[in-house]
Design a protein that fits this description.
single chain; about 300 residues; alpha/beta; Alpha-Beta Plaits; Rossmann fold; four-stranded antiparallel sheet; 12 helices; 12 strands; about 40% helix; about 25% strand; elongated; binds magnesium ion
Length: about 300
Amino acid sequence: MTTAMELVITLVAPVSLDPTRVASFVKVFGADHAERLGDRATDIFVEADLAATREKVKTLVADEAFDAVVQPVASRAKKLLISDMDSTMIGQECIDELAAVHGLKPKVAAITERAMQGELDFADALRERVALLEGIPVASIEGLLARVITASPGAGTLIATCRAHGVRTVLVSGGFMQFAVPVAQRLGIDAAFANELIAADGVLTGRVAEPILGGDAKRERLFAECEAMGITPDDAIALGDGANDLPMLETAGLGLAYRAKPKVAAVADGLIRHSDLTTALFVMGIKADNFAADPSDHP
Ligand SMILES: [Mg+2]
């Protein structure tokens, strides 16, 4: 059974959106009208079935160099943005970078990759990797934060604009508080939740605090934030790339997979494959003219 409803298809390109591609989408969908959100993005409004339209759009953009996200018009504005950290808000996997201190990056990164693909139990794989970090000086984290860890393209603008529009931002990470807190601070994210590396005498012990924050805990955090705000998960947008983000992405009103693993991309509501994190702003209906300046651009 299909149910026609008022949908918006948001096309977002990395640099500028080709008007002929927009025109072709308008034609294919017999759209009522299109509306520019900026040089990089345009909304196309259609009356159609959501699941069928998402399938059709997925096929149509497979070989394009821009992204397209389909959602009901009525619920596009959001009050909460909840996001993964590693390989989503930042360009690295913190545990892999920590392992590099011991010369173990290739070994740890291989396990991280399998865990993010959903091939390993998340908690077991985390304990196994953290054990390899035993003896690493806590002080080396500061160096990594200063020299290695970088915000993903568009992250600063995304968070600053959310703040300016009254959208609460929450970081929820299967990584570590020792990274999540400074990253949240740097980007201006309202709150951060992550696992805790246990240290003693200034070095990591190779243990992580239990219970481990995994995929289910990310979804629980989404529920808890919604309850505290008096909103429903439909008012939330979630961002993530790994298998442990799936429960959160599936529960939020809109779950966007950012440069995601195939398992995640297969089920997410929308994909960011080509454009930066500001895609989430266009998807929420915020025009480029109303983006806030990225504070990190002005040191
Ligand atoms: Mg991740």
